[in-house]
């Protein structure tokens, strides 16, 4: 077996963990959560029993799709606070496979390198803004969710749990984050203000309403 075959087999195994519909629902709930999620909350969100949720959540951890840690959900400390609970969050990293194999990521890196070397940042941002504007509608949250941003409210600020361009943004941060901001500016109607607001484990853009009332 070649190295490429082994990598593909590992991806098949990982993604195969999502063939069960209950497991897919649980993964979506945990992946979209702004922070860690306990078994009770995940079970309630997915509409299943706690024991069934625990079984499937641990299978997702085994597959490398979720990570697990322990903390007291009550917020209390000291004697009588109870044992720390098992909590889950989406694992870092990406898993993808195509049949037959495709190399869109390689093409994306090549195109980004050419655009960056040619100094075409403004042209790229203009194209991204126009693309966003063409798809803009009344439901910004739904549009962001459909594009993989996993939006969530943090007070009056709309934050984005996931960066759909993460791999390219790691390699070409200024170029890709600028394109991303322009795309969201196009998607967001006049009542919204997107801004660069990088933070750990989330997209580099956050969105605020011009008039929160």
UniProtKB/TrEMBL annotation:
SMART domains reported in the protein's UniProt record: HTH_ARSR
Location of the HTH arsR-type domain: 13-116
Family matches, as CDD domains: HTH_ARSR (cd00090)
Protein name, UniProt field: Helix-turn-helix domain-containing protein
Organism: Streptomyces chisholmiae
């Amino acid at each position: 077996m070649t190295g490429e075959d082994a990598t593909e087999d590992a991806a098949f195994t990982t993604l195969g963990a999502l063939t069960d519909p209950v497991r897919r629902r649980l993964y979506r709930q945990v992946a979209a959560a702004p922070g860690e999620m306990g078994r009770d909350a995940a079970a309630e969100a997915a509409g299943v029993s706690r024991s069934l949720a625990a079984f499937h959540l641990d299978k997702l951890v085994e597959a490398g799709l979720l990570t697990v840690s322990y903390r007291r959900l009550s917020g209390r400390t000291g004697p009588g606070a109870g044992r720390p609970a098992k909590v889950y969050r989406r694992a870092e990293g990406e898993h993808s496979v195509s049949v037959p194999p495709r190399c869109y990521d390689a093409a994306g890196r090549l195109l980004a390198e050419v655009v960056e070397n040619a100094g075409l940042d403004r042209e790229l941002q203009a194209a991204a803004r126009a693309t966003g504007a063409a798809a803009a509608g009344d439901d910004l949250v739904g549009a962001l969710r459909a594009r993989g941003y996993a939006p969530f409210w943090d007070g009056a600020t709309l934050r984005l749990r996931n960066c759909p361009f993460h791999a390219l943004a790691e390699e070409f941060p200024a170029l890709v984050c600028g394109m991303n901001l322009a795309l969201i500016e196009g998607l967001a109607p006049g009542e919204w203000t997107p801004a660069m607001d990088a933070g750990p484990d989330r997209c580099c853009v956050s969105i605020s309403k011009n008039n929160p009332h």
